[in-house]
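Appendix B. Chain record.
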Amino acid sequence: MKTSSSSSMLRRLTISLMRLSTSSAVAPLPLTTPFGHQLHHTLQSLQTDHSQNANGLLHALVDASTATQQITLNSLSHFTTCQPASDRKIIDDYLDFNVKMLDTCNDITEKIDTIRNYVESLKVVSHLLQGNIEPHPTTLARAKHFLDSCHNAMKTKRPFKRFFSQKLAQSSSSDTLLGEILGGSKAVTSVVCEILGTALSFKSKQRLSLLPQSTRSSYWSCSLQQLQKQIKEHQKSGSSMMLVELHQTVKAAHNLRIQIKSRNTTRSDVEELKRRCEELEEEIKPFEGKVKEMYKHLISVRMALLGILSSQF
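Structure tokens predicted for this chain:
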């Protein structure tokens, strides 16, 4: 009798749960998968106090993007072939996106080279004026020429490519495990490249076109949206995502340019420019290596997906 009563209660509980699960009034919980767990914790590690500092956040973001590609690569090792027919389209879409991100990495590397050339020109200026209390008019003219060239190069530099769109948000909204994995890789890489491209831009007030909020709800996407909210709050406070040393160097060059025009150049102006150039050179070094590492991981993910496709034939 007790067993029958227990079985009856179990059946009623099961029916209640089934009705609850099909009710449209109950929002589904974010998906939890091994990939989602790892990516969630990677993104959560950015939600720390050091993220309030633009430079600290930038370094952490690039590291997080590289870690995401490694998580993606490890997750793809469990796939030997495309199971659902939809997986083929998911892979094809990702491969197209992957090419754009590889191009973006090359663009970022070019921006780093541009900054290096900018610094080299400014170092020539500081060398011309250093130690001269009253520089010769010819020396001042040469210094002004270099500063004018730097200023014009900043204004005419082509804008950074942006790949944020509703299509990206939709392509991250797949019900398959492969879709979640590649969607996570795309979303994180896009956010990081967007922020890094802006940080290395000469436009200090450039706004970020962050990932649309319509991205599929999952364990990792909640963390990514929280990170974007943190960045938006950073910008609302009037702070710039521009690399701190780049911003300070541009400011020092601008001030010296004004002083030369007014023929009121001081030794402290020249020393300020020299110091800012040295700081920028030191800060820019790690970024090039990190971008190359991210590029290498994107290539590895691409090769893994091509291997999965080739196993079908």
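Further analysis of this model is presented in Appendix C.
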